[in-house]
Amino acid sequence: MRIQDNATRQAVVFLSLTLGLSYFVFWGPLAFFRVPTISFVDKTTGPAWAIALYVAGGFVPSAVAAFLTWRLEGREGLRRLGRRVVRFDIGWRWYLTIVAIVAFGTAAQVLLLRALGQGFDLSLFVTQLPSAIPLIILGPLSEELGWRGYAQDRLQARWNGVVSGLIVGVVWALWHLPLFFMVGTSQSVLGIPFLGFACGVTALSVLYAWIHNGTSGSVWAAVFFHWIYTYSAQVVASGATRSPLYNWLEYTPYIALALVVAFAWGSASSESATTRTIASAD
């Protein structure tokens, strides 16, 4: 019980710090005072200090995780976390699984657009390939040390993988909330409903949890998933003619996949290898 309490407390501290810093230091003030930063939708830009706050805010989850890991486990803990980021040997089946998940979700979104009477230029997936490299930093590496590398494992000391993934997903969605009120962000400009977005992100978090556990806590697996998902989502968003209906339905393919995983995996999901390591070292 002491191990469970300590791990849960560590997760709560991480989630609270991450939300607090984002709401009150980085993104929240920009949203509240309507300060423009940098927009990839309408090409507006704001002052340099606001852009710096906006970019730095995206690194909060991984930065907080690294700081707390250092405080709790010292340099050796940071080295262990770093080794999980470069644990590339997750097995070809998991690489194929991750690619298949994103391919299914992306294809379903394109078909949804066409069902709503909108065309989509598939060549965008090729022409935008050069943008894929920097995307590994903005999102995957700036977040995944925190969501999966820190919070998911510690929550699993008390709850199973699905429940832990849902908790992380809710906080992950709430962490994005200021973006819906910031000038120039895609969430704000494109009129994406936060409730639909939150359901989609929470569903994705269950898929991340499943992959994370299946690869024995490899943070790289989460980074890889986040990377190719972000690229595909960016391409679809750039070529889509959005409507209110599509904005509500765009995450339904991933929600459907998450429901399948949750029912099939369910109570069988147990603590990951990294959770057991945390517990044994406590």
Task: Outline the secondary-structure elements.
Elements: H1 2-32, H2 48-57, H3 60-85, H4 92-115, H5 124-127, H6 132-135, H7 137-155, H8 161-176, H9 186-189, H10 194-214, H11 219-239, H12 244-249, H13 252-265, H14 273-281
Helix pairs in contact: 1-2, 1-3, 1-7, 1-8, 3-7, 4-11, 4-13, 7-8, 7-11, 8-10, 10-13
Can you give a write-up of this model?
The protein is built from 14 helices and no strands. The chain has 282 residues and is mostly helical. It has one domain.
Defining traits:
mainly alpha, 14 helices, 282 residues, 0% strand
Short synopsis of the structure:
With 282 residues, the protein is an all-alpha fold. Helices cover 74% and strands 0% of the residues. The chain has one domain.
